[in-house]
Design brief:
The chain is α/β, with parallel strands linked by helices. The chain is built from 22 helices and 15 strands. The model has no long low-confidence stretch (mean pLDDT 91).
Length: 541
């Protein structure tokens, strides 16, 4: 089953038109991902450029052997030196224990689409996952969310003794506080035949002394390596050597890329869309690693300022940094897509709604850098509906879209549908009518038999007492049903639309692995329909 994104709360106008009315936003992108002619045009543009394919292949082989690569991964890397091969990219921050579900979905979309496009165009698409190892936003990656054995949303948060201060995560090692996260994970779920195996496997990658990025890469490689997912660590010094020319272009033209991004944002707003990026015009879209931290850069009209460390350098001096220590530089979120396409023959990027919005402001920047802009393809979006959740939905005749309401509103709606007239009110009305009947009977009997007054009054009290007692039992039963309903609605809500967001944006894959084993990845791979653009519901039995 599929759900139109226009029915899902939070879907932006830009993303909606990208999916369903592309001609309205076409000028902001490299072309419609559904049309073959756009791929053919990109192949031609990529062929006209020189990529250091052999060197890239060597770097990827070295890196992926470090992550524990499979034969399928190595075979995919060996395709890169072929002149007609192209790359299909995706990427994500290194979230704790693999991050939200959509990280896995992005990777699966990339893998499956690579096979489809390779067949369609008779050329090899190499699926690569860009590990965001240089990201420094620790707060965004330190937590994992689950629905625990009590059907409540649980956040497991890694809290080291020393919180990283803008340090790139490739340099941040786990301390012994990680053990608390593993233990909390263990206690959050009932025992299953798979639980010990899953937790043990996780511990092979997440342990004291390992970096956050290596743990993430190893875990992802373990889950998806057999499908041939290649990974790249952009912090690699040798890879940075290949980016010198790219970094120099940004420094030689300070403020130009930001100006182009802002102009595109203004165009989007004039057409009724939102702009994803709002930054100061003096921003240079690079970071400098200094004093162990990732420092943003600004242009003051004559010098390049490194924020927070009171350092200023001329463009000439900065070019010396690029030449001698390119590993100290990294792109921000705006130049990152360009760097990927500068280094690799990148034909397609698999992105979510936010990334698709970023790309809408980058077309003129790609033109300025003279880099072919890849086609942007929406990642598969899905919700996993377990059998226990499906049963509740069926019991109360609810469809997926009903969960977009607040839980209490939904509960009241179901109560109104299932119990339109509370039975206790009906019983109270009947009780009142019994009183009236007994009053009439009293008048008729006492007019001829006054001696029955006491007996009649006792009988009246007994009947009224029993009816009242029955009413109290009915009320308790009804309240119990309401409580069960409430618990079940919250269970469904927490599982399918937690925190009023799509399941994929909040929950982690570990509970599913604990319940269904590593074969669950195979189920996902088989069920994900990468050629459908709507949100997909997948039943899990």
């Amino acid at each position: 089953m599929h759900i139109d994104f226009r029915k899902i709360p939070g879907t932006t106008k830009l993303f909606s038109d990208f999916l369903y009315d592309f001609q309205k936003v076409e000028k902001f992108y490299a072309g419609d991902f559904r049309k073959d002619k756009n791929y053919l045009r990109l192949f031609k543009a990529i062929k006209s450029r020189n990529y250091q394919r052999g060197r890239l292949s060597s770097i990827l082989l070295r890196q992926n052997k470090r992550f524990g690569s499979t034969r399928e991964v190595l075979e995919n890397i060996e395709l890169l030196p072929k002149e007609d091969s192209v790359v299909i990219f995706t990427g994500q921050q290194a979230g704790l224990f693999g991050g939200p579900l959509y990280t896995i979905y992005k990777a699966i979309t990339t893998l499956k689409l690579a096979k489809i496009l390779s067949y369609r165009f008779s050329r090899q698409f190499v699926p690569i996952f860009w590990l965001d190892t240089e990201d420094h936003d620790f707060e965004e990656i330190r937590s994992a969310h689950f629905v625990d054995k009590e059907n409540k949303i649980k956040e497991i948060k890694y809290s080291p003794r020393k919180i990283p201060d803008n340090e790139p995560i490739y340099s941040v090692e786990f301390d012994d506080s990680l053990r608390l996260c593993i233990d909390e994970l263990n206690s959050s779920f009932h025992p299953t035949e798979f639980k010990n195996k899953i937790v043990h496997k996780l511990e092979q990658y997440y342990f004291k002394g390992e970096t956050i990025s290596n743990s993430f890469a190893g875990w992802l490689a373990d889950l998806l390596g057999k499908y041939g997912l290649v990974m790249v660590d952009p912090s690699d010094k040798e890879l940075k050597e290949l980016a010198k020319e790219f970094f120099a272009k940004e420094i030689e033209n300070p403020g130009v890329s930001m100006k182009l991004v802002m102009e595109a944002g203004e165009q989007l707003e004039s057409l009724g869309y939102h702009r994803q990026v709002i930054k100061a015009k003096d921003t240079i879209n690079l970071f400098l690693e200094a004093e162990g931290r990732r420092i943003p850069l600004r242009w003051n009209g004559g010098l390049i300022e490194a924020e927070g460390i009171k350092k200023e350098v001329t463009p000439v001096e900065f070019k010396k940094i690029i030449e001698n220590k390119p590993e100290k530089l990294s792109p921000n979120v705006l130049l990152l897509p360009l760097l990927r396409s500068h280094l690799f023959p990148n034909a397609v990027y698999i992105g979510g709604p936010g990334e698709i919005s970023y790309y809408a402001q980058l077309k003129s920047v790609f033109l300025f850098f003279d880099i072919p802009m890849p086609l942007v393809y929406p990642r598969s979006s899905l919700s996993l509906v377990e059998n226990k959740i499906k049963q509740v939905l069926q019991k109360y005749s609810l469809d997926f879209t009903a969960l977009f309401q607040e839980p209490e509103i939904l509960i009241n709606s179901v109560l109104k549908e299932k119990f339109p007239d509370p039975m206790e009110k009906i019983l109270e009305n009947k009780r009142e009518k019994v009183r009236e009947v007994l009053d009439d009977l009293k008048k008729e009997l006492l007019s001829s038999e006054l001696t029955l007054n006491t007996d009649l009054e006792n009988t009246r009290k007994k009947i009224d007492y029993e009816l009242k007692k029955l009413g109290e039992k009915l009320f308790q039963t009804h309240r119990q049903k309401n409580q069960i309903l409430k618990e079940q609605i919250y269970k469904v809500k927490n599982n399918l639309f937690p925190q009023n967001k799509l399941q994929e944006r909040v929950l982690n894959i570990l509970p599913f692995l604990i319940k269904y084993g590593f074969e669950f990845i195979d189920l996902l791979y088989d069920k994900v329909d990468v050629e459908k653009i709507d949100h997909q519901l997948i039943e899990v039995k």
